[in-house]
Amino acid sequence: MDLTPLVEAAQNSALSEWMRTSLKAVAIINALHVISIVTVFGTIFIVDLRLLGYPNVKRSFLRMHHELLRWTWGAFGIAAITGVLLFMVNAVTYHRNTAFWLKMAAIVIAGINMLVFELVTAKTAPSWDKGVTPPPAARAAGALSIILWIAVIVFGRWIGFTKGYDFSIPEDVQFDFPIQ
Amino acid sequence: MFEFAEWLGSTPLSVAIQSRLWLTPLLQTIHITMIGIVFVSMLNVALRVLGKIRTDEPLDEVWHRFAPWFWCALGVMAGTGLVLAIGEPVRQVTAMSFWIKMGLIVIGVGSALYFGRTIGAAAAAVPLVPSSRARFIAAATIVLWLAIIFFGRSIAYDVEIWESWHLA
Fold it and tell me: Which residues in chain B have Cβ-Cβ distances shorter than 8 Å to A161?
């Protein structure tokens, strides 16, 4: 599927133009994006550690899951909105950036991992809610989630250093863009 | 300060950091991951004070659950931040956002130290429905750490954010 017309339309939109010409819009949206993504990572990290049985299994998993994941989802919503806005600013550049697509892939796989956990493994949670080591499927979901969300941050940061380039960039090419 | 930053930027250590193109993105990634742990650790304690989460646990237990993560991640954050600053000292000292971030971190770390030292006595006195003063301090702590992340990211956009207040 060729996304080029859609990507070009996003970049040529009035909103995109406004963000590019505004002095502070991109800076503020970018900072909000970082705030929301670290909140997603931090809150989901606690749930993932609990799935791995760390620091202990004394507290109810279901209670912690209920309490924390609303913050994760709230932050994810802000990360998604700010992410779409940042994408629109330089849509054509991001569209051909490998790090960007790796980040998107990591988010999709993390989403599938979460969906499988919620639809299958979490159904058995009352039997291992507290005082019991979570089953292998729950531990695997937690470990995979930690790896995937760290990957999201790694690739997200890598976008800033490869924007307009690709991973196949020759070693002798000088990076001439401002560090962002 | 500017002369010191220029000198620091020309030292072999700074040049070594600058010449390793993979090092800055790697350190920044670790730095961001750590701020996530620092912020969410403090967020959990603050939300407990606000009575939003973990109300089945005493406040001092919540603090002791998250304090090791807070301090360890803060240490790694400080270490990676220091190496990043040595690698680009002029960029840091000329950024208004950098100095505001540093000032806010001093307040955040100072208040965490104070909270940690007084938590034993204070925990018993914290009711499930906290006082307006406790709620204010907890909310202010969340805002403080959000501001630290905001200004940390703004270092890259210092001219855009501060315009003539940029220190270069």
Answer: 21, 24-25
A174 within domain boundaries: no
Residue A9 lies in a domain: yes
Q: Cβ contacts (< 8 Å) between B32 and chain A: which residues? A: 34, 38, 153, 157
Q: At B90, which helix (H) or strand (E)?
A: helix B89-93
∠ Cα B69 B70 B76 (to 5°):
85
Distance from CA of B61 to the nearest CA of A (A): 12
Residues of A in contact with B143 (CB under 8 A): none
Classified as helix, coil or strand, A19 is: helix
A98 touches chain B (CB under 8 A): no
**Beta-carbon count within 10 A of B130 CB:** 17
pLDDT band at A1 (very low <50, low <70, confident <90, very high): confident
pLDDT band (50, 70, 90) for residue B130: confident
- Average of pLDDT values for B95-122? 90
A24 touches chain B (CB under 8 A): yes
A136 located within any domain: yes
CA B11 from centroid of its chain's CA atoms: 27
Residue B11 DSSP one-character state? S
Instruction: Please give the Cα distance from B63 to A59 (Å, whole number).
Output: 15
Query: What is the reported pLDDT for B122?
Result: 62
Domain span at residue A91 reads: 4-162
Q: How many domains does chain A divide into?
A: 1
